[in-house]
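Section 4.2 – Deliverable D4.2 (structural model, holo form)

The reporting period included a commitment to supply a predicted holo structure for the target in complex with calcium ion. Inputs used:
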Amino acid sequence: MTTRHLPLLTALAAAALLSACAANAPATPAAAPGTAARPAGGHGLQAFLGSYDTNRDGQVTRAEFDAVRLQRFRAADTNGDGVLSEAEYVAEFEGRLKRQYFDDGKQPDKAYENSIKQAHVRFAIVNRARDGKFTAAEDAAIADKTFKNLDTNGDGIVSKDDPQRPPQARANDD
Ligand SMILES: [Ca+2]
Ligand SMILES: [Ca+2]
Ligand SMILES: [Ca+2]
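Output (structure tokens):
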């Protein structure tokens, strides 16, 4: 999925990586645009199940995934105009990150600051129209891609039965 994207996206992703490295933050795997809304600070299948498996049966159906995404989008839209501004988008992410730090008994640190910076970068990526308004339709398009990337056996359910490819392998094919 690397070659067909706009050079600007690549540049933005590179900028995010560079700033993360410059601050000696723990290396975060390159965040592909398709994985933009992954759980705060979490990676992989476990984090995905933790966020979206609402009935805790060990698998995430498309209905569960879509319901949580929509709920999250609506909760983030604090002024209720149906779209997310950059501030709303980042605030929603920061809320989840804060909760996670609290749950882990950690204080905000350098990695925390970097995560917030990356959220700003991600907004520029997900807001494809560059109008400062992240729409539910834009979110749905990303969600679709995220789900299909994880549902590697293509049965419409994300579970441990889906062999997960390492991020590197995922970045190099399409
Ligand atoms: Ca479930
Ligand atoms: Ca809004
Ligand atoms: Ca599956």
